[in-house]
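Following the same procedure, backbone shapes were mapped to integers, as reproduced here:
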Amino acid sequence: MSKKYSLLFLTLSILWYACHNKASKVVVQDTTINPKTSFNNLFLDSAAIESFLSANTAYNNYRQQYFDFYKQRNYEYAWFDSAGIGEQAHNFINLLNNTIGELEDSSLYNKKLYDLYDMQTGEDSSKYHGKIPEIELYLTGQFFAYAAKVYKGTDADISQLGWFIPRKKVDLTALLDSVIQSKANGTDQYVPTNSQYKKLESFLPKYYQLQKEGNWDSIPKPAKPLHKGERSPVIPAIKERLAKLGDLEYNDSTKIFDTALFRAAKSFQRRMGLDVDGVIGGKMMDELNVTIEKRVQQILVNLERLRWMPPDNDTNYIFVNIPEYRMYIFDSGALKFTINVIVGSAVNNTVIFNGNLKYIVFAPYWNVPASIVEKEVLPGIKNNPNYLAKNNMEITGHSEGLPVVRQKPGPTNSLGLVKFLFPNNYNIYFHDTPNHELFSSANRNLSHGCIRLGEPKKFAQYLLRDDTTYTSHKIDSLMNNTKETWLTLKKTIPVFIGYFTAWVDRQGNINFRKDIYNHDEEMAAKLFVK
């Protein structure tokens, strides 16, 4: 995907990854590798691996990977050769140091490994010769631990965290084999995290530094919203904070709401998903007062989600980011356009999952869910005998003691003039709406779970772009027809409904959004056990 459009996610070029996982392969010992055929005359005994794992139980989770890795190379050393410790070992230690520093994650630090590594690089390196098998196996185990952490993420059942997109699979044995062959230079080319991961991770050092500096007390809210040209005793504190966050280029510490502060306020509002008007009101102050500790946690939570994602791939797909209320349409890996959306409310969450868009339904009927029939339609009929006619509805039968109700096609239909189906078990789909005024709201978690589109005709035109018979006029006619019309796409398009509350946009700015479904909170409870 073009870096220029790396946006969100992602985007996650989320695609063909877990759908094409291969079955586990049987590892065959390659006996052609031996001291006579290899430039390396260092070989392990399988018993040494067993002994090492018995003494270092922290690596027992990777027992199978240990034996698979060394068996396929006939137990030839990976990190050493006849000349001594290899370049790949030095490169890996450097990579490990950088990761520990950027993530401030001490779990990736193994004192014993570092002591042994320092021994072989010290003045009296002769002491390390008897430790070569131990250093070899420590490096292998720590690589597995590193890769599992950075590429795979938590072992928690992610469905319990509301995530139903299949997570990517990482073959640690194959990854290590590739790293050894490449001298551990540029590990990411073998199992790349997607580009968004690296962009988001790059902001961690800055936020950790802000956290260390402290002085992040809550700024008092002004009595009324502040506008450009006004003065207020709270403005210096606001300027200082916006300068620390990178929105204000120069902090003059005055009490005047000047042009520079106006631009900075709009920059901050844009990054937080607020109304971008440059007015400093209550909602903006709430976001300014979010603690740095909370922002660090938000970044870490979203880095964890990104670890589950596949590497970027050039392909066509649709991605919806629920907390951002936005759909991204990618064509051949490039961002084609975006559409504002309305997602499920806090009570009726939109599910995080993936599917394949297959059908367009013009002038759709709306089959009213039984829960709505019971809670809204029946009371409406009781209060107004003309309720069904007024709402363009009809009863088509009865089921489980309730009437089966559907709303006929038309401009007042709750699904609008068109819907888009990607069959799934959650009964979630894209659709138009008669209430387009709702798209002007900054917070758009308003639906019963389905996703409403701000520009449904534009989306239909894109899906039918390769068929010249579907002109703008014809699509308008189908949308405004009184008869429902189904179209099957010639080729399905992958759809991903994701949930990211922190990411880096196309301009390189970090964005944050509210955790509207409390998914961040639930994941934090799993990741940050106190």
User: Anything to note?
Assistant: Residues 1-24 have pLDDT under 50 and may be disordered.
